[in-house]
TrEMBL record:
The gene is asd. Pathway: Amino-acid biosynthesis; L-methionine biosynthesis via de novo pathway; L-homoserine from L-aspartate: step 2/3; Amino-acid biosynthesis; L-threonine biosynthesis; L-threonine from L-aspartate: step 2/5; Amino-acid biosynthesis; L-lysine biosynthesis via DAP pathway; (S)-tetrahydrodipicolinate from L-aspartate: step 2/4. The active site is at 130 (acyl-thioester intermediate), 242 (proton acceptor). Its EC number is 1.2.1.11. One of its GO terms (molecular function) is aspartate-semialdehyde dehydrogenase activity. NADP(+) binds at residues 11-14, 39-40, 160-161, 315. InterPro entries: Asp_semialdehyde_DH (IPR012080), Asp_semialdehyde_DH_beta (IPR005986), NAD(P)-bd_dom_sf (IPR036291), Semialdehyde_DH_NAD-bd (IPR000534), Semialdhyde_DH_dimer_dom (IPR012280). Belongs to the aspartate-semialdehyde dehydrogenase family. This is Aspartate-semialdehyde dehydrogenase. It comes from Brevundimonas balnearis. Substrate binds at residues 157, 235. It catalyses: L-aspartate 4-semialdehyde + phosphate + NADP(+) = 4-phospho-L-aspartate + NADPH + H(+).
Amino acid sequence: MSYRVAVVGATGNVGREMLAILEELNFPVSEMHAVASRRSKGVEVAFGDRTLRCEDLEQFDFSKVDIVLMSAGGAVSKEWSEKIGKAGPIVIDNSSAFRMDPDVPLIVPEVNPDAVKDARKKNIIANPNCSTAQLVVALKPLHDAAKITRAVVATYQSVSGAGKEGMDELWNQTKAIYGLGDATPKKFPKQIAFNVIPFIGAFRDDGYTDEEAKMWVETHKMLDPSIRLTVTCVRVPVFVGHSEAVTLEFDRPIEPEEARELLRDAPGVLVVDKQEADGYVTPVEAAGEFAVYVSRIRKDPTVPNGLSMWVVSDNLRKGAALNAVQIAQLLDEQGVIQPQSGYRTLTV
């Protein structure tokens, strides 16, 4: 016995990654359904050594599955997730549609696994923003040991966070600039090739963007509402992998070596931190990997009890697809859905 699973948005970057990780982690699947919009009906996607043909979202009978991994965007999730939940399965939603709903748990399994107990309120669990996911994995073990009072974060987010269109724009602009072609921006507000853009999402009245606001409201919901957090989100010409420069203030002194030891013992984290020219991780090394990498841990001498560090992760994996599959594992482990067969638990 095992689970009947549907991936909605199966033709997108994250949907395909969900299918790959379900197979990679040997999640117990008896039936797998690739679901997408009507225009993608019949499109083939891979699941292990099998090929699946996409089924039409509007015609699919969700009562015949146990778990739905939703990666079709906020508008689709707002229209469908509650309907699907009422049909019986638990929806693990990758969009922002339900993250701040008080009846929907927002979960990173390494950070707040107990929140899964609320999954049946609406049969929906929310995945956090990709940048928030890797941030809270790195903050959790430090916050448990020495309370974080303030955090200053600058993100360096890859174009895959904007979907296939973002990746295509970086590729096409790069070719166009080398070939003296047309590099007019279409997906992004400014040229992304050989450039950085300090703007992701939409501006709010306070001058921050909604992408920046997501990071502090989600961190407050999952970790601690008392942490003061300010964020600047930047799009960079990297295909896969988000990076973050993080400066923290604590309520007690914490030495860099203590922080390294805490992070080395934390689930989901790998510390690569040597004072050498290549003693840190970049998005190139993190792409395709499960872990949240932490490097450049050092004192911030400008504030009492301050530390700075560098955090990198594959945004399509831990920032989205992997976290969703780990939530599915958590549902099984904690008995929210009945265990029916075994699988290997993720360790990094």
